[in-house]
């Protein structure tokens, strides 16, 4: 083995070790989140690390993820849990001047950040609310589409929150759930399906893969959770 090959091999070993360590900590973090969840302790993403969800890697898939949500011009769309708003401005552009984007998040600092971005982008079609997923300030059957990106597992009472989403969706409306494995409280696709279908939605489409997926559900007129 010559010198160049030895350097390449050393680099490979270093890279594999770093990736292995990262994966180890990620899996450990997930186990801790799961255990805390079982004990009834919910750990919402603190706003002081909101920059974590707004980074160049995620910015690359803003458009593909919103393509999966399928927003159409003129629609009324609800974004639940936008964080600092990495998807908000693009979603508002997609509903256009005849549509409306309603943003609901329980953290006032996140709402302030979303409002700043929307103002800077000059978009008049965004309505923001500081509110909980369990008590949405939205009229019954008034929304065409709801999307949640890396939010559902953070919500403390998921059945109640999903029931609220079902209430605000128009008949035939669409609920879109996106999850990323990098998120410590990531939900596996089968878990998301079980949860959402139990509340009266029907799975329509699955996009992506284990690492990052989007599941779209239609509002079915079946049973409602109570
Ligand atoms: C991990 S961040 C994801 C932010 C953004 N969707 C993204 O993908 O970049 C989760 C967001 O859900 C919000 N959230 C968590 N539980 C909530 C609840 N019960 N009601 C409203 N918002 C909630 C948090 O405040 C935060 O903005």
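-> sequence recovered:
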């Amino acid at each position: 083995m010559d010198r160049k090959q030895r350097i390449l091999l050393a680099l490979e070993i270093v890279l594999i070790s770093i990736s292995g360590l990262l994966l180890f900590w990620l899996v450990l973090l997930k186990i801790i989140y799961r255990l805390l969840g079982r004990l009834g302790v919910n750990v919402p993403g603190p706003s002081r690390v909101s920059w974590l969800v707004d980074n160049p890697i995620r910015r690359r898939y803003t458009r593909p993820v919103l393509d999966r949500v399928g927003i159409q011009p003129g629609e009324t769309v609800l974004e639940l849990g936008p964080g600092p708003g990495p998807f908000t401005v693009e979603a508002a552009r997609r509903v256009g001047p005849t549509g409306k984007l309603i943003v609901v998040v329980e953290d006032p600092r996140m709402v302030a950040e979303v409002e700043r971005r929307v103002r800077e982008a000059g978009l008049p079609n965004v309505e923001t609310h500081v509110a909980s997923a369990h008590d949405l300030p939205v009229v019954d059957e008034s929304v065409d589409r709801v999307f949640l990106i890396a939010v559902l597992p953070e919500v403390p009472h998921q059945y109640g929150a999903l029931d609220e989403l079902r209430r605000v969706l128009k008949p035939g409306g669409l609920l879109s759930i996106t999850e990323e494995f990098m998120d410590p409280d990531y939900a596996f696709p089968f878990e998301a399906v079980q949860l959402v279908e139990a509340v009266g939605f029907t799975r329509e489409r699955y996009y992506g893969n284990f690492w990052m997926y989007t599941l779209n559900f239609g509002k079915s007129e079946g049973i409602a959770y109570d």
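The chain has a mean pLDDT of 90.
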